[in-house]
Amino acid sequence: MIRAIISGIGGRMGLTLREAIENNTDYSSFEVVAGFDLQDCAIDGIPVFSSPGEVPGEVPAADVVIDFSNHVFVPGVLRYCAATKTPIVIATTALGENELREVDATAKQTAVFRSANMSLGVNLVAKMSRLAAPALEDGFNIEIVEAHHNKKKDSPSGTAILIADAINDSLKTRKSYIYGRHGKEDMPDIGEIGIHAIRGGTIPGQHTVIFAGPDEVIEIKHTVYSRMVFAIGALKAAAFVSELPPGLYDMNDLLGQA
Fold first, then answer.
1. pLDDT in tens, 122-153
2. Please, what's the b/e burial string for 193-213 (b: 16 or more CB within 10 A of its CB; e: otherwise)?
3. What CATH code is assigned to 120-224?
């Protein structure tokens, strides 16, 4: 049995994680022993704390924390994991420099798994884009278009940056990022990667990588139809990281095990 604490248990992804554990026999080995959430929420049979520092000693020790919360909440969760040596999966995006420093510090004390997107498919798109980019570097423009629901606050998505970084890491000469083209009157530069965001309705997530060359276009596209995709990816990551020594891990490590 893998005992898990869900950080952000009262949110949409917290609910989806609980549904995955309750309804999917592949993840029946998980038991939710507690939750963290900034908002006041009551969940049958699961103690919920507004701060990780409030967890009393009688709560069973967790094997892993899964964090789908808010970037301002993450440092406190990381400090809890460092103090208790509890591995953590960080699925929260839009982390700032201070929060990323906390990630690095925590990884010296326990196993930390961090990804801007918990979908295995999205991470394969990043991998495929990284493999394709060097062959197209000199003659193709590269554009990334992402679309999400109208409640998403950060723009562009962390996943779009993840894909752009994966491409850039494979190139002989790194490209600069251009966020939209409003007000730009010059021609697109081959040394740029254009990143564009769409927000509307209930779109869970869509990312398209476009390699546009002379008389031909290559597209690599991923579309999510349910948040369950992210929950399943997070649970796979949680099972993976719960058995690892201190260090910083990501989807490349998990996919390497597949």
1. 999 999 999 999 999 999 999 999 999 998 88
2. bbbbbeeeeebbbbbbbbbbe
3. 3.30.360.10
Q: Start-end ranges of CATH 3.40.50.720 in the chain?
A: 2-114+227-257
CATH superfamily placement of domain 2-114+227-257: NAD(P)-binding Rossmann-like Domain (3.40.50.720)
Average pLDDT over residues 197-226: 96
Task: Give me the percent of the chain exceeding a pLDDT of 70.
Answer: 99
d(CA 52, CA 48): 10
Burial tier of 192 (Cβ tally within 10 Å: 0-12, 13-18, 19+): middle
pTM of the model: 0.89
| Average confidence score pLDDT of the chain | 94
Domain with CATH 3.30.360.10 in the chain: 120-224
Report which secondary-structure segment, H or E, holds 97. helix 97-107
Q: How far apart are CA 6 and CA 4, in angstroms?
A: 6
CB count within 10 Å of CB 253 equals 16
Tell me the backbone φ, ψ of residue 132, rounded to 5 degrees: -80, -35
Q: Helices 228-241 and 12-23: crossing angle, nearest 10°?
A: 70
The residues annotated as belonging to the active site are 148, 152
